[in-house]
Structure formats: structure tokens, C-alpha cells
Amino acid sequence: MNITRNNVDALNAVVTVEISKADYAPQVDKVLKNYLKTASIPGFRKGAVPFGMIQKQYGKAVLLEEVNKVLQENLNRYLQQEKLDILGNPLPKVAEDFNWDAEDYKFEFELGLTPSFDIDLGVVKNLTKYKIVADDKMLDDQVARIRKQYGKMISKDTVEKNDDISGTFINEAKGIDSPAQITLDIFKSKKAADAFLGKKVGDVVTVNTKGLFDDDHKLMDYLKVGHDDVHGLEIDVDFKIEEITMSEPAELNQELFDKLFGPGNVSSVDEIKAKIKEDAEKQFATQADQKFLNDVTESLLTNTKFDLPSTFLKKWIQTVGETPLTPEQAEAEFAKSENGLRFQLIEGKIMSQNNLQITFEDLKSYTAELIKKQMAQFGQMNPTDSDVEGIVARVLSNQEEVKRLSDQVMSEKMLNLFKDKINSKTKEVTYQEFIAASYGE
Question: Is CATH 3.10.50 the classification given to domain 152-248?
Fold first, then answer.
């Protein structure tokens, strides 16, 4: 057995594996002798088949299998021993004149090597960390929603501005027959909203889909049309009114406070708003952190320059799926996945340079906190340690969950590192201002 490597350049290499008869013959002979004991061939008693016949019938298949085993075992061992960081998997080079009737074999494999580079977090500049606050309007709107949610529903005959309307969107030509519950504020089109005012149960209101909502994707929810159909859709749809109701807002009294937050925990509207503000801003902090993480990622991708073994990776992409891809398909797939691959390498380098690791204790602690939060949502505010530990053990016995949770723990560690190491300004904004800054809306 002889394995050599030729570095074509910094990102590509060819490994040559030379296998002699001595490397595979003993195992081939052993397998064929086992066949000799069990083979069933007409005209011969079991175990009495001539070895030559066994060799003739099974020899080539066994040879190929055993040579492949020797090849893969030794190639993998070589890559580990040489500590080669490769991308994808080794690709065998096709030899047109390969001869399986020979006794010694030579195999060549192309390797795509991981690029060498360093990470400088100092290149990430001019970023903003947002602190999102729940403003008075948001708190007032949330209190109004709570009052409506816990209020008394009253049936009505005629549609007015703030009513709930149940009915069905219909367009026979497009196959639309979609039950929906709506309020008039869902419409971007004032003309459409006004068309409902004064209508009664049994009436049909016709609206046009063009500009009906602030986002055409809402047509998917209300009309149940496919994603490919919603953009630029311009058709008339009928809405048959089946029920009109209004909500008589619940009184802001101790009975409602106890229902929402437990007996005696809240005793005034101001305390309700304080609770809403606390819970909302915790959720907002998670969204702000995710934006900061995304912004750092984008900056690192833009400013961290290194080459990839692109030609190799495109060839490798052609082979990895259940169905081989054409060169054109592989080119397109590489274009879609390149940034993801680049950030995986950047992330790995950051972890290495900053010694970011996940211990089992990290994973247990993180999982326990998630479970406590989930239990709290269902009213279990003070679970016992043994209850939580039992659930943690069950969750971490699932390898898919371990992988998912490990990714979350590492993401949190990366976020904390970025907050500590990257200079940024903090800006206090409302949620609507955050959405506008994030999505331009």
C-alpha cells in the first residue's frame, strides 16, 4: 500500500492510492472460502463445490468489493493522519484504461482543500444594535385587543366599521371558495372596506384583488390561491356575508386581571401595561439580537476574502444527490449555496480563533431554561428540578434535537462574542421603527 499526495495548488490536490495484491488477496481468499462452505450450485452437494468454480462465479465481484474496502479504509485513515481539511468528499478520477485483471491497482482522487484565512472582527464597522421599546400606542392597542378578546360577542344585522364579518370569498372561474373571518381594517383599499358598510347577512360584496391588501401574499391566506398566482392578480371576487358580530369590550376589572395573570398578581391597568411591556420587550430583544447577528454575518461575508476550490466543488455537487446533476445545474446550485458555505468556514474559524466550544453542561443548562419557559406558558411556573431534569434527559436522547439545540447554543455564544468584540452604536426605537429599519417598510 502506498499513498502519495500532489498539491496542485493551495486549494486542490490529487491523492494517489497504490494497492498491491498483498493488500487485498488474503481477504478475498477468506471470503471465497466462506462461499465454498455455503454455496448452493446444481449438481454439487452443499460444501462440495470445487473452489475453482466458486472463484469463477464470485471471484470478480468479491475482488471489487474487497479492493474497495481496502481503498476506502486506507484513504480515510490517510486523510485523518495528514489532518487534511477538505471540502466535500474525495472525487475519484476516471481512468479509461483501468484494468481489473491486473494484480496491482492505482486509484487517483481529487481533493478540494479548505482555504487558509484569518478572521478580523475589526472589519465589521458602522453597525447598529437596536433596543426596541414598547411605546404607549402599542401598549394601548394591546390592552384594546385583550378587552376585545375577552369581551362579549354580539350578533348584528348591519356591518359597521369595527365589526367582525364571517363569510366566503368566491370566484368560480378561478376555483376560489374560501371561508374567512375578516375585519375591514385588513384591506389596504378604502374602496373595498367602504363597500361592506351598511351590508347585511346574505348580501354579496364584490371586490377586486388588485391592491386589496398591503401585501399580495395575504391573498394566499384569504383566497387560498397559490404563491405563483398572487403577484399581479387582478380579478373580482365575491364575498358572501354569513355572520356579523361585534365585540363588547371586557371591563378592566379585577376579574379580568385575575383571569389574565393569576389571582392577585395585577390590580390596575398600569400594572397590565407594565407586564405587557416587559414581555414584549423580551421578545423584541430576541428579534434585535437576530438582526445584529445577521448584520455581522453579512459584513463578515463582504469583508472576509478567500478563494474556494470552485471547479472541484461544482464537480462534487454533480455527484452528491440521488440524481446526478448536469454541469449547468451544478453551477446554479453552487451559486445558491456559496454564501452559506463561506459563512460555515468563517464561523468555524471564529470558533477556532476564540476557542468557542459547547460543553454538555452548556447544552443541559440551555435546554432546561427552554423547558422552564415552555412550562411557564402553560401555567407551570415553579416546576421541580427533578421534573425539568427528566424532560431534559428525554430531549437530549434525540440526536436531531441535540444537533438543533447545539446550533442554538453556539449561535448564542457567537452573538455574545460579537457584542463584546464589535464596536457598534445602540439605538432605541419603537417596533415600527425597527421594522422600517430592517425591511424598509
Answer: yes
Q: Which long-range contacts (CB under 8 A, 24 or more apart) does 275-278 make?
A: 276/134, 276/139, 276/142, 276/143, 277/134, 277/139
Give SS3 for 405: helix
Query: Could you report the per-residue pLDDT of 382-433, keeping only the tens digit for each?
Result: 888 898 999 999 999 999 999 999 999 999 999 999 999 999 999 999 999 9
pLDDT bin (cut points 50, 70, 90) of residue 193 is very high
pTM passes above 0.85: no
CATH classification number, 267-439, choose in 1.10.287, 1.10.10, 2.30.30, 1.10.3120: 1.10.3120
Q: How far apart are CA 21 and CA 411, in angstroms?
A: 50
Q: Identify the CA nearest to 300 among candidates 421, 438, 437.
A: 421
CB contact at 8 A, 412 and 366: yes
**CB 220, CB 230: distance < 8 Å:** yes
Angle between helices 269-303 and 136-149 (to 10 degrees): 120
pLDDT digits over 123-181, tens only?
899 899 999 999 999 999 999 989 988 999 999 999 999 899 999 999 999 899 999 99
- Domain positions in the chain are 2-113, 152-248, 267-439
CB within 8 Å of 436: residues ≥ 6 apart: none
Q: Topology of domain 2-113, per CATH?
A: Alpha-Beta Plaits (3.30.70)
